[in-house]
Amino acid sequence: MAKYVLQRVLYMVITMLVVVSVTFFLMKLIPGTPFSNASKLTPDQLNIMKEKYHLNDPVPVQYANYIWNMVKGDLGVSFQFNNTPVTELLSNRIGPSATLGAQSLLLGAVLGIILGVIAALKQNTWVDYTATFIAVVGKSVPSFIFAGLLQYYIAVKLQWLPVMFWRGPQYTILPTIALAMFSISIAARFMRTEMIDVLGSDYITLAKAKGASYFQISVKHALRNALIPVVTVLGPLAVSLMTGSLVIERIFGIPGLGEQFVKSITVNDYPVIMGTSILFAFLFVLIILVVDILYGVIDPRIRLSGGGK
Amino acid sequence: MKKSKFSLLLVFALVLSVFLSACSGSKTDTTKKTATKKETSNLAADQTLNMLESAEIPTMDSSMAQDVLSFTMLNATNEGLYRVDNHQNIIDGVADGKPVANADKTVYTIHLKKDTKWSNGDTVTAHDFVYAWQRAIDPKMATPYGPYYMEGTIKNATDIANGKKPVTDLGIKALDDFTLEVDLEKPVPYFQSYVTFQLFYPLNQKYVESQGKDYAKDASHILFNGPFKMTKWDGPTAQDWTLAKNDTYWDAKDVTLTTANFNVSKDPQASANAFEAGEADITPKLAQPSILSQYEGSKNLYRYMQPSVFWLKFNEQNPALKNADIRKAIALAIDKKALTTDVLANGSIPANFIVPKDFAKSDTTGKDFRADAGSYLETDKAQAADLWKKGLATIGKTSLTLNYIGQDTESAKKSDAFIKDQLEKTLPGLHITIASVPFNIKLDREDKQQYDLLFSGWGPDYQDPMTFMDLWTSDNQQQHMSYSDSQVDTLIKQAKVETDYTKRWQELQQAEKLILDTDAAIAPLYQRAANLLVADKVKGFVTHAVGPDYSLQWIKIVNTKK
Q1: How near does any CA of chain B get to the CA of A146, in Å?
Q2: Under an 8 A CB cutoff, do B273 and A41 touch?
Q3: Closest chain B residue by Cα to residue A255
Q4: In whole angstroms, how far apart are CA B90 and each of A85, B73, B172, B496?
Q5: Rounded-to-integer distance, Cα B370 and Cα B350, Å
Q6: Which chain B residues are Cβ-neighbours of A266 within 8 angstroms?
Q7: What b/e string do you get for A224-262 counting C-beta neighbours within 10 Å, with b at 16 or more?
Q8: Residue B39 phi/psi, 5° resolution?
Q9: Contact yes or no for A259 and B266 at CB 8 A
Q10: CA-to-CA distance for A21 and B248, rounded, in angstroms?
Q11: Predicted interface score ipTM higher than 0.90
């Protein structure tokens, strides 16, 4: 197990390095400068600015410098936020995004799995159709529509919850629900399909023949086996949720990462683009590792140590 | 001495209040007066304002600021020599009276008030200005706006920015603690307005240098000398911040508001929702017709003309666009009225000019630049079609395909599609291909002149028509059109050194006529209006044309009946 994890960590580092390099060179292909007043500067003035930030160096030199600084733990300073260190920017912003993402993932996974299981157990009844309908709506209606509707009806009209901002637990409720809609439907759809598949398999028939109770069959045998593929979807979903949602963060005025990442690209804020990409890539490979390890826990067939290699 | 000064001020305040209530332009004088009275006695106990902004404050360092929000916050918390008041007039800030110019108007002497304070108790002196101005042009600082603003205006700025002279050679001297002398390269008729810009604000050298890199990193690393102090701001990434009245401000008695809370809201509909729920008293600017249509006619809708003009640029490297008839045909073919009322639907007005309306007033007559300037290139589809035929015949073609560079935002795409439709329907044989690109790429295409038609615009840098007019000279590095008219060059050159301001005005108006009426160098489209929502209880909110977006110091919160 330890050897496996170590090997995976090594792969992680290599993956990260590839991501960093590709992002760096792609980013340098975007035309323009990171200076927001570029349209007002003369070429001479622009040159002075570029000199100062070493943007006139050849791209490979800039790349080498960046990697060297990165190894030293220095991700540079942001252009759009007047020299705020990127590490500080990311650490300030990851909190709200991660909280919101974790909450909505939890809500989405729990509700989605319940919905999927019920739909599968009551296959082809009105319960199933209702659950499927909810899942289809959740998947096909974009989250900003839900966000807008929730904000308008629950916060503005009924005044049950605050309209926006990030000042306490009650402020997280509406964005969590809005963001969870997508994961609910993903989880529900997967769960239903897997559950139906499992329920039709031989070992369930055997369990039934052995006289196991309905509850035992559906929870102990069926649910556990049906969960495996769902874990696969939840991994990447977790990353995308935790690293922030552009629209949800905008609508509810949440100081998160999502908006930051998109904006940094449009304004050529190179250090922030790099910093955010590195963070995303890191979370991604990390979660994939966690998911792989979880497989072993859930599915005895994929135990990592002992037998096999 | 002190007493007589106070009584004088009191008299002045009384006179002013009578004058103001008289000229507010209400139907009957008596009702207005009682209304004013009611308003002041109706002041709410809680003078707190909750405001939304659409972005974070990038910096509170006045040398490094380059965006409207930074300018607005600096204008609220700090003060330069002069400031723009609630009637858009220039009033004294730290300066004590108007600047005194020498005979050829290139050297100004400015006296400072002797009792204005920094928030650490230090007195604001002439040396603070000298330090700030030198810091702004120091090549080591590489400030985004220093060279842009000072080069060619303040003595020796260009050489200092290029490292050829030391910063101490900059044309600003402290004659004593409270007297400044500013040495200019040329007469600057808009000098007072020019130095209201945040770049020219004083900086306390001892404090700034003691903070080093930490200067202005958050609210506790800045000094204030303006109407408000920033009491909470965690730095450039902060999504909320707070201003509180500065009791040591020299004019603190005229500031009613005690607290202003700011939050960032980037989504316009969410901002409107927060306003509806009473969580915000003032929203950021809202441009979406879908939101604005809900508030059309509402007394909460605050609409004002911005001094930003938008136009199509013609790239004259394209031989077809070198032809003035073709350019003029394109400029005349677009129904600007329909563009502003139906497509933009936000109060913007058609532009038949370069220098916007309600922007620059003449020093001699007090009249708006547009008042006695002409109106050019008004939509005329019949004439457009005629000129088009003539132009095509001259260049020997029957059809023409032009690349149009526009921005990739939703609203830009809508306007661009409208313009394409207008042009293709009015000018037979014209085919427009639109490329919708992000702002940065648009700038890049513009720099490299890789376009035929380019949707573009300009906002002023100082309150004078010249900020719009010197864009069109042959040697202007920001023109990017290969447009050249020696007559325009001569007129602008003259206007830049003209000391007879009436004549200068005429030269600028003449140049505008040449550029549009004769050359059709660009096709002006519209002047933009801004819209935001202001709650009933907020009185005295004022917006500005140049530099800061708005001022907070005249705001009063009143009781409203629900």
Answers
A1: 13
A2: no
A3: B239
A4: 39, 18, 21, 22
A5: 14
A6: 438-440
A7: ebbbbebbbbbbebbbbbbbbbbbbbbbbbbbbbbbbbe
A8: -60, -45
A9: yes
A10: 54
A11: no
pLDDT of B372 > 90? The answer is no
What's the rounded mean pLDDT across residues A232-241? 77
CB contact (8 A) between residue B142 and residue A48: yes
Asked whether A274 and A34 are in contact (CB, 8 A), the reply is no
Longest dimension (CA), chain A: 85
What chain A residue is nearest to B137 in terms of C-alpha separation?
A45
Residue B423, exposed/middle/buried by CB under 10 A (0-12, 13-18, 19+)? Answer: buried
Give dist(CA B362, CA B464) in Å, integer: 9
At B362 the pLDDT is 81
Q: Which chain B residue's Cα is nearest to A252?
A: B270
Contact A37 B142 (CB under 8 A): no
Interface test with B, best of A42, A77, A163 (most B CBs within 10 A): A163
A87 at interface of B, judged by CB pairs closer than 8 A: no
For residue A251, the chain B residues in CB contact (below 8 A) are: 267, 269-270
Rounded CA separation B356/B349 (Å): 10
Task: Show the 3-state SS of chain A.
Answer: CHHHHHHHHHHHHHHHHHHHHHHHHHHHCCCCCCCCCHHHCCHHHHHHHHHHCCCCCCHHHHHHHHHHHHHCCCCCECCCCCCCEHHHHHHHHHHHHHHHHHHHHHHHHHHHHHHHHHHHHCCCCHHHHHHHHHHHHHHHCCHHHHHHHHHHHHHHHCCCCCCCCCCCHHHHHHHHHHHHHHHHHHHHHHHHHHHHHHHCCHHHHHHHHHCCCHHHHHHHHHHHHHHHHHHHHHHHHHHHHHCCCHHHHHHCCCCCHHHHHHHHHHCCCHHHHHHHHHHHHHHHHHHHHHHHHHHHHHCHHHCCCCCCC
Q: What is the CA radius of gyration of chain A?
A: 24
* Chain B residues touching residue A166 (CB < 8 angstroms): 239
Average pLDDT, chain A: 83
> Cβ(A217)–Cβ(A208) under 8 Å?
yes
Check residues B411 and B76 and name the one with the higher pLDDT: B76
Which residue has 């006045």 as its token pair?
B62
Identify all chain A residues contacting B142, using CB atoms and an 8 Å cutoff: 48-49, 51-52
pLDDT at B14 (0 to 100): 42
Q: What is the DSSP letter of B88?
A: S
Report the side by side order of strands in the sheet with B430-437: B349-350, B522-533, B301-314, B453-458, B400-407, B430-437
User: Which residues 181-240 of chain A have a CB within 8 Å of chain B?
Assistant: none
Residue B24: pLDDT over 70:
no
Interchain CB contact of B236 with A (< 8 Å): yes
Identify the helix (H) or strand (E) that includes residue B92: strand B90-92
Q: How many Cβ atoms are within 10 Å of A96's Cβ, its own excluded?
A: 22
For residue B22, the model assigns a pLDDT of 39
Per-residue pLDDT at B8 exceeds 60 = no
Residue B543 has, within 13 A of its CA and on its CB side, a CA count of 21
* Residue A303: per-residue pLDDT: 61
Backbone dihedral angles phi then psi of residue B404, each to the nearest 5 degrees: -115, 120
What span, in angstroms and rounded, lies between the C-alpha atoms of B513 and B523?
13
pTM: 0.83
Residues of chain A found within 8 Å of residue B439, distances taken between Cβ atoms:
266
Whether A267 sits inside 8 A of B161 (CB atoms) is: no
Sole residue written with tokens 């159709």 = A129
The minimum CA-CA distance between A205 and chain B, rounded to whole Å, is 54
Query: Side chain identity at B241, as an amino acid letter?
Result: W
pLDDT at A54 over 90: no
What three-state secondary structure class fits B93? coil
